[in-house]
Amino acid sequence: MPRRGRRLPPIGREDGGALPLTPALSPKGRGRKWHRLPRPFGERAGVRGEMPMQGRSPMRLFRLLALVLAGLCVGLGALPAEARAPLLIEGKKTLYQRVLARPGAEVVSDPMAALGKPVPPFTVFYVYGRQSVGGRDFVEVGTSTRGDVAGFIAADRVIDWKQSLTVAFANPAARERVLFLKDREALGRLMSSPARAAEAAAMRDAAIGDRLPPDSPVLAIEPPTFVDLARQFYLLPILNAEQALTDDGFPVRLLEVASVPANKPPVTVAAPPPPDPDEMLRRFKVGITVVIDNSVSMQPHIERTRDVVRRIHEQLKDTPFADNIRFGVVGFRDSTKVTPSLEYVAKVFSPLSPDRRPLETLAALDTMKATRVSSPNFYEDSFAGIKLALDEMDWGPFGGRYIILITDAGSRAANDPSSDTHLGPEQLSQLAQQKGIAVFALHLLTPAGVNDHARAEAQYRPLTRFPGAGSLYYPVPGGSPDAFGRMADQLVDTLVAQARATVAAATPAAPPPAPPAAGSMADQGAIVGYAMRMAYLGREQGTRAPDVFRAWTADRDTTKPTLPALDVRVLLTKNQLSDLAAALRLILDQGEKNRLSPQDFFAQLQSAAAATARDPSLVRQVGNLGDLLGEYLQDLPYRSQILGLDEREWLAMGPAAQREVLDTIEAKLRLYGEFDATSNLWIAFGEGQAAGETYFPVPLEALP
């Protein structure tokens, strides 16, 4: 499908660089602007000539992406002649050495100096030199790659960090708490033991009860409530990773990690008494935003939704729980660019707020009417409604955070020129998970939409995926108002029951069983409700990651290894995310330009990379040796599927599959724009770091 003037969000560098790429304007019809940095990208570059394809061996896409990144780095990141560069990792051409400061580290101006300045634990430094003085080894460090040398730290007070991989605790629903063991051998024995579940349970019980014997392999245990990365940022960098198998043959990764919470309070500050969990749970509020299709066929379902909200209000209005649940309402239609008489793409009818009374929400629902204007396609733009609910509703005061999508049609896809968001279901799901929101979908399988049912299901299953619970997608056979009403009643009753149990301080001692029965709303609701409870308690209690220096742990649950215990993230600086986005824009641009001549795609990428650099010959040299991204990918224990494509595979996959690859890249670019605007997850380790050296924990699945 051809593109017509679509724009992407700018992600600007913070080091003075300006890239010759497409500037982006607001993609939102409702006036929401993309976050702009001080130095946005400039105009798109042309292409300097072509390189013949004959006689070249197939070049993998990750090497070409690396080539593009090298061009950007050469063009932008060139250091002044007098500036020093950090040391390269041994055997690498473009990856710099980095270290993490141990607790108690001090930076001194000279190795002979007696006194130094204390360094916060796990401050990230680049290595500018190594030397021995008086029989002791020192590392010369700086806070950036641009020659900003801070001083020297004793080598035994830092640890090498060759990768940017870190982990975060996965959603706690349906899994056990993570154990941190003292050494790799103990972890290997545990994960390969036929009695793994029982042994891990005994270790966990001893750690929880503070009964660990002196010879126990357990060093620490995950906190009982969820550690919110946005509220209490923590760093769990992966120092080493090994592949192993459980006794029953399930693959698992054994990880050596380091841990310390960011912004850890000084030990001299007396910790306030912990809040009473029961009292906190009594304040637990549930926010449910209904995102409902306002197309021609939906008026009976709008009225039935109003009945559901009214029934819940009548049930709760004279109970102590009446103030603990609130509803928001969003309506959506289709593109007003295609059909202007539809009036809006997505619209907030009733905001989600603790101060919004139920009668106000009901009155707003009375004003919601299905349009009388037909759109040219059966599908609508439901993703615009989801995005509006994510962005515009006040989710902060609520512990239980739910979106219920109600529609009889699929959504405009991310690659649709008339899409309001240009985001796909996977990207929207990631944004929802970042905010701790569970998305449910009630899909009305009406006879009129029979040709759209499979397409819509393929969109809504990944959109509603929730860790530990599976997809919260519920088809409504027949799609009649009565059938819909029964399922809507069941879903809302399930969420309200979970919330009432929480407010009554009926917190379960253990997570619900998993995996849930297929399509079981009760089982899935219990898992999601438990996760909401744990996340809420973690936020309210300010739960921090365990203060462990170095330990070994597994990335899968010890009892149910099908469940992830840790989510892998890649720490990218603001400048790195900008360079990555710029490289992907070039790939996308060349893919669009060569739709009719795919055999020229790889050759044009090399030319485009050279066009962005001040020294094209240096770009070719870097590309031949494997540079920044290529070297980086070669060392990671986690691989990308897209970047494994080579030239022959690209040509063999055909136009439809090529289009899918480009659409995936574009959707990820949109997601990076959202990351750029998420200010509360950009973190600086240590003092004096440049703005472009702040880090964002990018989920592994968000990488190209």
UniProtKB/TrEMBL annotation:
Entry-linked Pfam families: VWA
Ranges of compositional bias, category Basic residues: 29-38
Gene Ontology molecular function, alphabetical: protein serine/threonine kinase activity
Keywords, alphabetical: Kinase, Membrane, Serine/threonine-protein kinase, Transferase, Transmembrane, Transmembrane helix
InterPro entries with a match to the protein in the record: VWF_A (IPR002035), vWFA_dom_sf (IPR036465)
The keyword Kinase appears for this protein: yes
SMART domains, alphabetized: VWA
Transmembrane region(s): 61-79
Domain VWFA: 287-495
Protein name per the record: Serine/threonine protein kinase
Spans annotated as Disordered: 1-52
